[in-house]
Amino acid sequence: MRRSPFVARVTVPVAAVAAAGALLCTASTGSVAAALPTAATAVSAASAALPADLTLVQVRQSLLGSHTWYAQTYRGVPVLGGFYAVHSTGATSSVDDGRKTVSGLASVTPGLARAAAATAAKAHGNARSTRLVVVPGASGAPATLAYEVTTDQDKQVLVDAGSGKVAKVTDERRLATGSGKVFDPNPVVALQNESLKDSANADSAVPATAYKTVTLANLDGSGYLRGAYATVVNGAKGKNPAAFSSTNTFNFTRSDSRFEQVNSYYAVDRVQTYIQSLGFTNVNNEAQDLSVNTTTQDNSWYTPSQDTITIGTGGVDDGEDQEVVWHEYGHAVQDDQVPGFGASNDGGAIGEGFGDYLAATMSQANSTDTATTPWACVMDWDSTSYTSSTPHCIRRLDTAKTVANRTGEVHDDGEIWSHALWDMNKGLGRDKATRIILEAQFGYSPTTTWAAAAQKTVDTASALYGATDAATVRAAFQARGIL
Hints:
Elements: E1 25-26, E2 31-32, E3 41-44, E4 54-61, E5 66-74, E6 77-89, E7 92-98, H1 114-120, E8 127-135, E9 144-151, E10 155-160, E11 166-171, E12 176-183, H2 187-191, E13 211-219, E14 230-232, E15 249-250, H3 258-277, E16 288-295, E17 300-303, E18 308-312, H4 322-337, H5 345-366, E19 377-378, E20 395-396, H6 410-428, H7 430-441, H8 450-465, H9 467-479
Parallel strand pairs: 12-15, 14-16, 16-18
Antiparallel strand pairs: 1-2, 3-7, 4-5, 5-6, 6-7, 8-9, 9-10, 10-11, 12-13, 17-18, 19-20
C-alpha cells in the first residue's frame, strides 16, 4: 500500500521566510491573503525563497537532479492536500505549488478529543493513526478543522473536530479494473423481448446481442471477483468455483456458472457506486459477500447474521437478472442502516417494498420505460419461469393496492410501500427521491410501523429540501392510505 506522499515521514520545520509577494497570513481573520506562484514556475536554484508554513516531507534523487517535497501547514497544523515541490535539475529549479487557500478559520484548537475521533470512525475500522488537519473550503467557503483517521480497513476517515461527525471516507487502496460480459439489467429488458425462455440454461436461448461488455470497477487485483463493494465468496473448488482471471477479464456466457458471478458483482458494485454518488459514504459501504449459484432453490436471500447474499439457480438463474441482486442488496442496506430491521410485519413489508424500489430505480439509469418492459415491473427475466402473462413481473410498483388491501404477506404488502416510493420518484426525480428514502431509513426502528416510517420520510424531505417537496412525499403515502 502506497502511503500518501503528503503524510510527513520527517518533520523538519522550514525556517526560511517567504520573499515579497509570497504567502501572508492575517492573524485577525485567519485567512490566507496571497498571490500563489504559478505551478512549474522556473526559478533560480540559488535565489529561490521558500514560502513560510511548509514542512519537509522527503527529498528524492533522480538521474537528472533532486526533488524536494513539502507539506503545507497552517498555524502548525497540516493543510489537507496542500503541497509544495522544488525540482532541481542542473543550474535551475522548477516549482510545483499546490498550496491551498485557507480562510475563515479563527482557531486551530479542536473541540473534540483525539480518542473521540477514533471512536467516530469505528464503523470504518480500528484507528491506525489520527492527526489533526485543516480542511480547505471549496470555492471560497471557510476552512474547517478535522481529524484524519486512517484505519485497519485501509480507509481514511475525516471526522469534524467540532461536531464529531464523519465528513468523508476515502478508500486508500489502489484498486484495479477489469472487464466482463453481463446482462444489463436482464435480457428481456435489453432485447425488449417477453418471449425469451430459460431453456435449461442454454446459450442458444438468449441471443448474443443481449450481452454487454462492461468495466468491472474496484477490483482488488487478485484475479478473483473481489473488490471494494462486492466479493464473490464461492470456493476455489467444487460445483460452482469462484471465477478467476489473471488478466481480470471475465467473458463468460450464461451456460457457464461463472457468468452469474460476474453479473452479480457488477450489479452490486453499480448500486453502491450510485448510493455514494448521492452523498452517502456509510450505507453498506463494504465488500458485500455474494454466494452465487450455491443453492438450487428458485430463490435468493440476504442473511443478516452472515451478512451474505445467496443467489439461487432454480428456474432462471437469479444471478442473470440484476434486478434480483439489487432487490436483495436492498435488505443488506437496511440491515446496515438499522441493525435487526424488519422485526415487525410492517418492517418486513417495508423491506420488500424498498428492495423492489431499489431494483426499479437502478434499472432507470440504463433502460427505457416501455410498454413492453415498464420500469414498474421488476425482475422481468427471472419471472419468465413461472408467469404466463406479459409483461413478466415478479411484482409491480404501480398496483392499485392500498392499506385496505393488506394480506399480511410481506411481499404482497410490499407493493403498497413500493408504490408510495415510486410516486416519490416520479414526483421528485430519481436522485432526490432516493436520497430522501435512504436518509430517512437511518431513523427507522427495527419494529417500525408504516405510519411512523412514512412520517419520518416526510420529515426528512422537509429537512433536506423544504415544505414543497415534503408535501409531495406526504401525498405519495396518503394515496396508499399509509398516512
